[in-house]
Amino acid sequence: MKRIGIHGVLVVGFFMALGALAWAAEHGPGGSDESSDSAGTNVALGAKYTLWPAPNYVHCTDPDDAIQLTDGHTTTGYFWTQTSTVGWSSAAYVVITVDLGRLQPISGVSFNTAAGVAQVTWPATIQILTSDDGQIYHNAGDLVELDRQAHGPFPDGYAIRRLATDRLQTRGRYVRFVAIPPAGGSYLFVDEVEVFRGSEDLLSQPPAGEVVGEVADLFIQWRSRSALSQRFQNDVSAFEARLREAVLSDEAVRTRLLDRLDQVRAALDPAAVQVDGSFRAVLPLNQPHRQLFQLQAELWRAMGHAPLVVAGAQPWDPLDPFASPEGSAEDEVRVHTMRGEYRAAAVNVYNATAEPITALLSFEGLPDRIISDGVTVYQVDWTDTGRGVPVAAALMEASRSDQGWMIHVPAGLVRQVWLNFHVPRGEASGLAGLYEGRIVLSNSDAEPARKVPLRLNVYPIDFPETTTLLLGGWSYTNGRGSYGITPDNRAALVRHLQQRYVNAPWATRSVLMNYQFSPDDPDRIDLNTEELDAWLAEWPDARRYMVFLAIGNYSGASRAGFAGAALGSPEFDRRVGTWISAWVRHLRAKGIEPDRLGLLIHDEPHEGSEIEPLIAWSRAIRAAEPDVRLWLDPAYRQPSKAPPEVFEYSDVLCPNRPMWIAGGEAFADFYRDQQQRGKELQLYSCSGPARLLDPYAYYRLQAWQCWREGATGTFFWAFGDNSGASSWNEYLARSGPYTPLMLDDTRVVPGKQMEAIRESVQDYETLQMLQQKIQRAEQIDGNDPAVVSDRQWLSAAVAQVLDADGVTKMDWHEPKDRSLADTVRAGVLQRLVADDP
Prior knowledge:
This protein is of the alpha+beta class. The strands form 8 sheets. Strands 1, 3, 4, 5, 6, 7, 9 and 10 form an 8-stranded antiparallel sheet that branches. Strands 23, 26, 27, 28, 29, 30 and 31 form a 7-stranded mixed sheet that branches. Strands 12-21-20-14-18-17 form a 6-stranded mixed sheet, covered by helices on one side. A hairpin with a 4-residue loop joins strand 34 (742-743) and strand 35.
């Protein structure tokens, strides 16, 4: 499983690319075709170079990658589809070492690249290193920063840009370009590098810049400093804009704050931040950053805001760290819930005092049983992301005392408090009805206490203990774990996922590939079931067990055959049949029927995929064990033009939901037709970075679309994929990250995106409950006006949610009404408790 490849959208911005070529030609020191070594000459022309790692982007990698970067030619047309370009996918960083042949004075360099569309991002930093001997290197500077100073920020949208500087004053025979993508950036492309000769006197001067060590050791520092620099610059600019536009009665306040802002700006030095394995990108990041928000608190006071402002909030809306206090204590928080389900609410707390405070949160007007057992309180931490967009998504459980919950509120930075209501099941609890209470926050320095009205409507229905919708996310908790799963966090992750209704867990192929055929009898096979049995024991209540056999993936497929038998041969069919039947017998012995085993053979087959291995494996498995569910996530943009065998041999079709939305009715109708032919329909999504995806539109509404389309499962890539970095420091992520929760090597912390998934499963179940009630009533009298009204209302209500403005835009910061799902759900609950007609 991987996200949809960038080649699927290469037609976007072609004409922008042509314009970008002209733009790039106007910037930076121009190269020279002179053969002499005069000042300004490109002394890298025709030079030899080495590349690490080897280029691997399929659409431009070719043998000429070894000569193209210094051949004097640049790419025309769309950058990363041309073989004149050198490209990398999923590289943490790239090192290009140019040998100039002899010691040269150096005044500048250039690096021709492109980005701005299809998940291709601009480099975060390109460190320029020079060496006389190829052993000891000096850091001459960051080309990205030098280019930005000379030519401005990167353009929006697709562009080709020649990053260039003429401000170097150094020397060397070897020049290294260490290009580092931003955290989560998956691609790097370049088609030409240049090194410009400086004045002769540079040869008699020491090389400029400090001596640096191994690139691998410095990667963490360089990427982190680049991200921190961006964070500090963006935050200073954001606050300055708010300060300049603020309505103030005393202009002297604005002048004073602007002067102090200059002092904070000077103190915000990325190099002063200690970046090591314990670093967490939690805002505020250090003391000068904290002082920036203290300036914002002072601005709030000057604008007339109270020392402590508390207001009800829409829990799924994004927060702005530089927004002024909005709302008031009169904003009512409303929660509609069944007993036994989990439902979220939120309040925002603004501290306009000069220092952080610790506020006490408590409730008034709620039954003691709900306060003691039916609510969990979290304070939401701000974390920076690899894309430089801070988000408030990490839910840290608040410490509790006899008086209430302790909430730490920094000065000048909004703190959201997240309330998770989970009213105990059972009529015996006596918990049902409308409770009108208050959320109370108090602090000795900000009296009186702030109270926000709370209306908690507990419906006299118990939420089912077993849910209908299948939910999974390539969790891969088997064996030693995969991606961000470690022996130290695996048990906690499994518990976390089970508490959020994950009932279709995934395992890698190793759970089924530990076997030994008898050398004398190809129908005899011995299985090593240890890994499978351990995984099954972790998930005793799963409704379906999903296994990725990895015969093929987005990049290609294996034709290796099986157990010595050639792919597609009669012996292959026989051995695959023996193998799968042996596993089915083992599962049956454990009380697991074969239709609870789902197999993904080839991940995301798409236009151009080799499908023969997929068909061969599917045919052999179905012939031997037709009840095993063959599960497929086809990624064809025009599925009607795909080979029909791809769909013929699949029992479950799980198309990509964003592709479904983009593909329009033709795409949807194809899969609806497959559904009519007996295929089970499910939906999955695999976009990233997860922290920037809308918990409401991307995560929560997928289950609503499942319900409308009659789909039986919802899947997300991927619960454990933190892209090789702690969720608390995404600066070091290789790509994505994709996990919807907060994951590091030892700990699992709830995240808003994962909480939205849990609520989506509950939403689906709630819709199912009303539909089943309607169906029961229809069996009595399908023409009863009340029954007809409920049926029409339910269809229209779901359409109101899914067809609302903005909900097909998956970026969290896209504006939209995120209250509609809860409004409709409240209507569903009211109809559930109404007397049957």
